[in-house]
Design goal:
By secondary structure, the chain is mostly helical. The protein has two domains: 44 residues, Orthogonal Bundle (Arc Repressor Mutant, subunit A); 116 residues, Tetracycline Repressor, domain 2 (Orthogonal Bundle). The protein contains nine helices and no strands. The longest helix is centred in the middle third of the chain and has 21 residues. The relative contact order is 0.12.
Length: 169
């Protein structure tokens, strides 16, 4: 990636982190960089390509967070690492996890890398991996959307959910 492309991606991330995915437009991106919007197209064919680059970055960061979860192979630790990433980078998390995934534009192997800590922990059981991911994604999405009652302690719900899946491992 060229230096200018890296600057574009960084500015796009800043826009998303400040205002969500809707804040990312090619015009806003150009304004952030102090350039004219047509200059962006020298580096990215369209906004979707910029978003795909950000999704690849988010998946890499999530993979690193899950790989660093301690103790290794502990489902609750993985769930907490997943939750922490989503709560730390909520707009980037939503970009990565909402809508169709532009797989053909992502770096090779990034989706698999992000999934592998969970897949390995549940013994390479594809159905169980998907069920655990759906639980974690649902919980974190509800938390980000403030759908739980104010002041609700969600730690016990996370622990109960992970314990329920642990019985299956």
């Amino acid at each position: 990636m060229s230096e200018r492309a890296a600057q574009i991606v960084q500015a796009a991330r800043e826009l998303i982190e400040e205002g969500g995915a809707d804040a990312l437009t090619m015009r806003a991106l150009a304004d952030r960089l102090g350039i004219r919007a047509p200059s962006l197209y020298k580096h990215f064919p369209d906004k979707a390509a910029v978003e795909a680059r950000l999704i690849g970055i988010a998946m890499t960061e999530l993979a690193e967070a899950l790989e660093a979860a301690r103790p290794p192979g502990d489902l609750l630790a993985l769930g907490l690492a997943y939750r922490n990433y989503a709560l730390t980078c909520p707009h980037l998390y939503r970009l990565m996890s909402n809508g169709p995934l532009p797989r053909e534009q992502l770096p090779a192997g990034v989706e698999e890398r992000a999934a592998m800590p969970l897949v390995r922990t549940v013994g390479f059981d594809e159905a169980l991996s998907r069920a655990v991911w759906a639980f974690a994604h649902g919980m974190v999405t509800l938390e980000l959307d403030a759908r739980f009652p104010p002041g609700a302690d969600l730690d016990p719900a996370w622990k109960a959910g992970m314990r329920a899946f642990t019985r299956e491992i």
